Amino acid sequence: RGRTYVCTSEKNDDGFLKWDMFDEEGRYILSYYLAEDEYIFVIKEDRVYTICLEDEEGIPHMTRYTMNWEND
Predict the structure, then answer these.
(1) Rounded to an integer, what distance in angstroms lies between the CA atom of residue 4 and that of residue 26?
(2) By the 8 A CB rule, do 20 and 32 touch?
(3) Dihedral angle over CA of 60, 3, 32, 43, nearest 10
(4) Strand ranges for the chain from DSSP E
(5) Which residues make beta-bridge pairs with 63?
(6) pLDDT tens track for 25-68
(7) How far is CA 39 from CA 60, 70, 72, in A?
(8) Cβ–Cβ under 8 Å, residues 42 and 17
(9) What is d(CA 14, CA 11) in angstroms, rounded to the nearest whole number?
């Protein structure tokens, strides 16, 4: 969809990093927060796939979030 996702240095009270999303023309759409150790590696078909570098056992962990675009 031509969207741009930007990780900022701003954190919420839980220490999660703020991400901003912009449309293909650079207009702001929304913000959301992810844990600091969670990195977005792909966004496809309204799903965001993130990866944490490792868990307590040293194994990388992937999470899939479904985005709900109610005003889209």
Answers:
(1) 8
(2) no
(3) -30
(4) 4-11, 17-22, 28-34, 38-44, 47-52, 61-66
(5) 50
(6) 999 998 989 888 888 888 888 788 989 877 778 888 888 988 77
(7) 11, 24, 24
(8) no
(9) 8
